[in-house]
Design brief:
heterodimer, A: mainly alpha, 59% helix, 0% strand, B: mainly alpha
Amino acid sequence: MDKKRTEVELVFRDVFGDDGIVLRDEMTADDVDGWDSLAHINLIIALEKRFGIKFATAEISRMKEPGQNVGTLVEMVSRKRQ
Amino acid sequence: MNVASLEWVACFLVVSGVFFQLPNVRSRQVLFAAGSLGFLAAQAPAWPAWLLLGAFLGIGYLVTNLFARQPNQLIVAGYILLLVAGFTYIKQYAFLTALLPASLFESKIALVGVSYMLFRQIHLVVDAYQGQIAQFTFWNYLNYQLNLFGLLAGPIQRYQEFCEDWERLEPILINREEILKSYLRLFLGVIKVLGLGSLCMTAYSSVLTRYMSEPAGWRTIAEFFGMLYLFTAYLYFNFSGYCDIVIAGSNLLGLRMPENFNYPFVSRNIGDLWTRWHRTLGAWIRDYVFTPMFKTSVERWPSYATSLSFVAYFVAFLLAGIWHGSTWNFVVFGLLHGAGVAAAKIWEMILIRRRGRPGLKLYLQNPPIKYVAIIGTFHYFSFSLIFWSNDMATSMSIVKKLGAALTR
């Protein structure tokens, strides 16, 4: 999971243009500067390209709901890659 | 029958009293389904409407099932297009009646709750196509579409959320206090709809009559603002009261419904407003119109992402506007909201360019700026409701008269 988080972290740094981003599982959209609804879709596109996966419409919005965080996002990416 | 009527409340009190006395989930489901059917029948649809509803639900079930097993993007898109075309025909949209021969629209079929059923159906086929519907049965589908608590005016619930409670149908209010609070919410909802909402509507109608009949003068401006506040208050009491009744009623029978309001009048821009006012519609538009449209276009033309986002805002809100009604005034209503969201986004981009993200954060935390944004958003929203509540000619007369009063 740590390896996967590091890979996801590189995607975050690229999308948000910030090399200082260090992801922790408990982080949410409020903890990353600029993670608004448009940036969220750009992030999804970048994750899909990087990992060769596809997110469903319902999953995309669910990722930003209360109770969801970087940990659940990394877990979803890992599950889809299996 | 209206959910804020005394007959409905009396029926509900009887049903809620015996509902959990029934021995098992199946018997509660049967009673619930009978209630939904009875409620639908009480809306007195004519027999062509029953036939159409039967066809809509039968085909809806079959295609959702098919898309879950054999996903095909082209067929899904074709089916959604057909659904939307059928919807615009049934609702007799102004652009259709202007284009097609009048003989095609001679017999009008009024189908109760069709706007909400359409959105639930589109959600179902998209989610089924994308593998997001784990179990799909005809019984669950029928009850999801005809659920008496969401039939007339939402909230727009997702199938997966509905099934979570429907398949257990057990008490979800854990103690006496929660049960009493739900009954209280239901009665407060009735008071909001029948009392406060009706009072605001009566006052609004009388101010509107005065506004339209008197010559333009300084009173016109005061009456204009009076109308804005009274109609917004009416709509809030009426719709949030209705939601209070159906959410509380649903909770008392073991089904959670999504909340539709979250302090809408503290929104600081129109985008924020749609996460607080009729939020299940806002979320639906975001998930099934804005996100797929923006995502697909950015994947194809990544260097135009910003411009494409504005196109997506306008298209999404235009659709939200015309979904509310079939006449031209709803087009203006939708475009005003698209313009509102686009303006807020442009302003945010200007601030980021000038001050950077830390500067934007400080700006958003500034209390006077926050209050100005809230007051501005409230007035912009109330102004847009002129086009929601009146036909195009009346809306334009209202605006022109204000213009005349201001330039006297």
